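Q&A FORM
Asked by: J.P.
Topic: structure of SUI1 domain-containing protein

PROVIDED:
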Amino acid sequence: MVDLELVIPTAFDPFTEAKDSVAFGTKDYVHIRIQQRNGKKKLTTVQGLKIEFSYEKILKDFKKEFCCNGNVVQDKELGKVIQLQGDQRKNVSNFLVQAGLVRKEQIKIHGF
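REPLIED BY: S.T.
REPLY: Here is the structure written out as tokens.
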């Protein structure tokens, strides 16, 4: 008889890499992720910006520039995370580089 190993798929967690970090805001990378919501709906999350930045002001500029809604969520493990409606990964990365908040090599884009 042949022994077969069963691999049971688990739920996808887009924040698994971020949970490995020691403290939020200390790593050099800004993680931009996308999550699937209902049907075609998507949610873009921005995590890893420096702590001294005003997340509310950055969110206000995002919302005005991209014509979308969003909010700032306080996570126990990850710190403050900006959430935006829709797939805004490219827009957010371009905005952060043009505004001079981060360098292009500091941005990691995750998603499908």
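FOLLOW-UP: The two ends are 39 Å apart (CA to CA).
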